[in-house]
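Can't paste images in this forum, so I'm doing it all in text. The chain is below; anyone willing to post the predicted structure tokens underneath?
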Amino acid sequence: MAKDMGALVKKVREEMHAVTGLPLGSTVEVVKEDGGWKVAIEMVEKKSLPDGMDILATYVAKVDSDGKILDFKRTGLRKRIDTVEGETD
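Text version of the structure:
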């Protein structure tokens, strides 16, 4: 079992990078679910100049209690400069 949330998130981020090959962005959500976790991470799908035009994708991974990814899917895309509904400065 993962020692704590920080260790679990670090493990999931490393594995998501290894699986997708995409640069990591922010961890945007971590939720404990029955028998595991749901972790949402923004990753850079396309690097652009200026940076504000980078295309970020949100990936949601379902993770078991040991921190192993069971499955993942891309749930959204946005330009870095665009805010997401509900975000604040």
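The chain has one helix and four strands. The beta strands are 24-33, 36-46, 55-64, 69-79.
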